Amino acid sequence: MPVTRGFGGRRRDHALDLPPGQYLTEDFPVLSAGPTPDIDTADWEFFIRTESGDVHTWSWEQLHALPIEDVTRDIHCVTRWSKLGTDWRGVSLDTLFERVETEADFVMAHSYGGYTTNVPLEDLQDGKAWIAFEFDGEDLEPEHGGPARLLIPHLYFWKSAKWIHGLVMTADEEPGFWEQNGYNNYGDPWLEQRYS
Predict the structure, then answer these.
(1) C-beta separation of 192 from 156 below 8 A
(2) Which residues of the chain have pLDDT under 70?
């Protein structure tokens, strides 16, 4: 499996309020395991599948017809870089979950291209997560997860799945791609939950 550049980071000390072990970067490193999928927005679809099998879907146009939010957050990568004050536009997961009835406590995020990552449902609610399609005032570039990615900025950035396709509700926590390969199931950067 090809791995793009950026998995090795430089360490620098800063007097900023960064999570432990992180260094500040001004650029936006590209980190991917595998090739970048080519997704036409005419074919793009996002779904939420509940534990009962109910499926809610949104096309690109339907997603953009929902309330759109501007979001400014710091992001932190498990490879030790942090980027402060990043600007995004997207739709809150709170908006998408308004139509969804579920008793599940966990979610498996699925990306175009096959990537998966697990997240507790509570970490997608209460203004904590978005489906983001713009970064820094521009359409989200494919190398950064465009046309749309999951954005969960309070967790390490591998949880913000690129090329998001859907969320599957699960009763139990099941590990996703990186979690099966030794990463922490949760990924809190302030607790340095990098690896299991």
Answers:
(1) no
(2) 1-15, 32-33
